[in-house]
């Protein structure tokens, strides 16, 4: 799958965080995180409005204790399609 | 982060088990060109109290003219170099790793040598050979048990030392490496008894299918209805208990996008309960069903979680059952009961990626349907595939291919490969026993009352009895070859 944007995904114990050189988005759930990523993309105008953006989120395994890595070293990666509509457009 | 298909090849224990296994297998293959690159490996030998000497307790595995102490030194240097390179590649603290590894290695060999003392080890019919008036006849299993006990003492009473050793105490890495070495042994077994190995593999697949389809839904229902756990926690715990322990818990949690704290807590439970399984089940099965060696081995593979604990339990069962049979005048070949345990477990491991993928599809598209749907990549299956299995299969089939090309080649290869599947593999088992004890801290069970209770009920009340029934259906009557 081709992605338009790649971010590093972590979890700080209470929130999911998407790290990108241009922004950092957060959310208590992945749905909230996706909404915050959309907001960040619109704020920083990395993509044009009304575009669909495929985001690749690669989970950073450093948030899992090192001793677990010997048993398993992959958590998950996800592709998410975001519709870049500003809140005002969405309200309409 | 696993972005590409080749991610982790240099930076994970799973892949390094493959590299270490293949390096040693290739070293044994080099014998076909007249080289002896494995004969330096040290091995222990039976000794009698009061007559100890380094020459009786230790020997080089091959025909190389090395003093036993020199053989042990070469063994240390070779494995220290390889594991430190791996530690560097895995971005561990190499200085700490080196210090911890050295202590672990020294402890392992001391315990291994002690465990070879004749009063502990030799069977009754060999008492006269060693001039003994009494003995416990525990076989090679005593070394394993001793390593486990020493590890548990360190892990629970000398926590500073356990923390120091933790940089190198990696039971899952050691056992995965040992399993790649075991590829040689199953290669030898396949040449000796192809029908038996084929039956073992096929019935192992069938038993694995039952494990996935039966255990998981039962435990999930118990967690949801009986213990009122959340869907997330129930799914992760069910996989941890029912399938293959920590790797299944992590794979399932990832598949359902659970918060990472959930699989971490479940993993702690899995590791601690694996110790109970390892201590209780081999002795129990050996005592209750001494005439069902392969059923017992397979039942362990279905019940004991984590590869390290399963292989360790299989090795103890192999030793206990053979010692028991030997006392009754039957001498079974070594390793076949262990192989029954491992074959079942390896199949369970292999399918975890597919299971997690299906679970992810169900979870994302059915359970938590959301707008702007995320997609599940097929690469998730590959990322969760246990890579050491590749090493095991490569070694297994390469051995058969090479050994089938002629009796002279087969004989040369077998001689050179014996130190790898023999003493190197046993050393890795010993390191596993010591490490698994060291990293098991029973005090971590505090505060996990409800989860621990569910785990105990599910394991001993559901998984173990059903697993034994399934193993009995598929493996009853199968016996290891007699010497």
From TrEMBL, chain A:
<protein>
    <submittedName>
        <fullName>Uncharacterized protein</fullName>
    </submittedName>
</protein>
<dbReference type="InterPro" id="IPR035157">
    <property type="entry name" value="DUF5395"/>
</dbReference>
<dbReference type="Pfam" id="PF17373">
    <property type="entry name" value="DUF5395"/>
</dbReference>
UniProtKB/TrEMBL annotation, chain B:
<feature type="transmembrane region" description="Helical">
    <location>
        <begin position="385"/>
        <end position="402"/>
    </location>
</feature>
<feature type="transmembrane region" description="Helical">
    <location>
        <begin position="452"/>
        <end position="474"/>
    </location>
</feature>
<keyword id="KW-0812">Transmembrane</keyword>
<keyword id="KW-0472">Membrane</keyword>
<dbReference type="Pfam" id="PF03601">
    <property type="entry name" value="Cons_hypoth698"/>
</dbReference>
<keyword id="KW-1133">Transmembrane helix</keyword>
<feature type="transmembrane region" description="Helical">
    <location>
        <begin position="69"/>
        <end position="90"/>
    </location>
</feature>
<feature type="transmembrane region" description="Helical">
    <location>
        <begin position="136"/>
        <end position="158"/>
    </location>
</feature>
<feature type="transmembrane region" description="Helical">
    <location>
        <begin position="346"/>
        <end position="365"/>
    </location>
</feature>
<feature type="transmembrane region" description="Helical">
    <location>
        <begin position="15"/>
        <end position="35"/>
    </location>
</feature>
<feature type="transmembrane region" description="Helical">
    <location>
        <begin position="200"/>
        <end position="223"/>
    </location>
</feature>
<feature type="transmembrane region" description="Helical">
    <location>
        <begin position="263"/>
        <end position="288"/>
    </location>
</feature>
<comment type="similarity">
    <text>Belongs to the UPF0324 family.</text>
</comment>
<protein>
    <submittedName>
        <fullName>Putative membrane protein YadS</fullName>
    </submittedName>
</protein>
<dbReference type="InterPro" id="IPR018383">
    <property type="entry name" value="UPF0324_pro"/>
</dbReference>
<keyword id="KW-1003">Cell membrane</keyword>
<feature type="transmembrane region" description="Helical">
    <location>
        <begin position="422"/>
        <end position="440"/>
    </location>
</feature>
<feature type="transmembrane region" description="Helical">
    <location>
        <begin position="96"/>
        <end position="115"/>
    </location>
</feature>
<dbReference type="GO" id="GO:0005886">
    <property type="term" value="C:plasma membrane"/>
</dbReference>
């Amino acid at each position: 799958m081709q992605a338009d944007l790649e971010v590093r995904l972590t979890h700080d114990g209470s929130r999911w965080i998407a790290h990108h050189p241009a922004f950092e988005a957060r959310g208590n759930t992945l749905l909230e995180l996706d909404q915050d990523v959309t907001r960040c993309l619109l704020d920083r105008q990395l993509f044009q409005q009304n575009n669909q953006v495929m985001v690749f989120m690669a989970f950073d395994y450093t948030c899992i204790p090192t001793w677990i890595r010997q048993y398993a070293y992959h958590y998950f990666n996800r592709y998410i399609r975001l519709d870049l509509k500003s809140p005002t457009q969405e309200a309409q | 982060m696993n972005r590409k298909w080749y991610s982790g090849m240099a930076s994970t224990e799973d892949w390094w088990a493959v590299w270490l296994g293949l390096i040693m297998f290739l070293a044994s293959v080099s014998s076909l060109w007249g080289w002896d690159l494995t004969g330096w490996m040290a091995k222990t030998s039976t000794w009698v109290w009061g007559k100890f000497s380094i020459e009786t307790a230790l020997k080089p595995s091959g025909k190389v003219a090395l003093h036993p102490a020199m053989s042990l030194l070469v063994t240390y240097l070779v494995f220290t170099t390889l594991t430190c390179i791996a530690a560097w590649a895995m971005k561990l603290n190499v200085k700490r790793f080196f210090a911890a590894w050295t202590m672990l290695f020294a402890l392992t060999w001391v315990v291994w040598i002690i465990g070879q003392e004749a009063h502990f080890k030799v069977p009754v019919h060999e008492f006269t050979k060693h001039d003994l008036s009494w003995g416990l006849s525990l076989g090679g299993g005593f070394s394993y048990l001793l390593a486990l006990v020493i590890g548990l003492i360190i892990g629970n009473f000398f926590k500073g030392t356990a923390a120091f050793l933790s940089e190198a105490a990696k039971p899952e890495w050691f056992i995965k490496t040992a399993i790649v070495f075991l590829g040689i042994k199953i290669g030898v077994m396949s040449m000796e008894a192809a029908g038996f190995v084929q039956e073992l593999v096929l019935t192992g697949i069938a038993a694995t299918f039952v494990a996935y389809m039966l255990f998981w839904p039962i435990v999930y229902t118990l967690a949801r209805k009986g213990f009122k756990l959340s869907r997330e926690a129930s799914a992760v715990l069910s996989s941890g208990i029912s399938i293959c322990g920590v790797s299944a818990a992590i794979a399932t949690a990832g598949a359902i996008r659970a918060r990472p704290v959930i699989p971490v807590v479940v993993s702690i439970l899995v590791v601690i309960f694996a110790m109970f399984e390892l201590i209780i089940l081999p002795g129990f099965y050996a005592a209750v069903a001494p005439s069902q060696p392969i059923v017992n081995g397979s039942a362990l593979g279905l019940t004991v979680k984590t590869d390290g604990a399963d292989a360790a339990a299989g090795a103890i069962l192999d030793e206990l059952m053979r010692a028991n049979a030997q006392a009754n005048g039957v001498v079974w070949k070594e390793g076949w009961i262990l192989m029954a345990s491992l074959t079942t477990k390896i199949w369970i491991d292999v399918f975890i990626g597919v299971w997690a993928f299906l679970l992810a599809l169900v979870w994302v598209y059915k359970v938590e349907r959301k707008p702007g749907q995320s997609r599940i990549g097929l690469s998730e299956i590959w990322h969760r595939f246990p890579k050491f299995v590749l090493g095991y299969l490569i070694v297994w089939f390469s051995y058969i291919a090479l050994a089938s090309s002629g009796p002279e080649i087969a004989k040369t290869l077998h001689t050179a490969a014996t130190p790898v599947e023999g003493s190197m593999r046993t050393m890795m088992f010993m390191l596993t026993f010591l490490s698994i004890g060291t990293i098991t801290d029973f005090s971590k069970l505090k505060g996990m009352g409800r989860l621990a209770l569910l785990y105990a009920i599910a394991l001993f009340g559901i998984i173990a009895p059903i697993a034994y029934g399934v193993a009995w259906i598929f493996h009853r009557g199968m016996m290891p070859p007699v010497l």
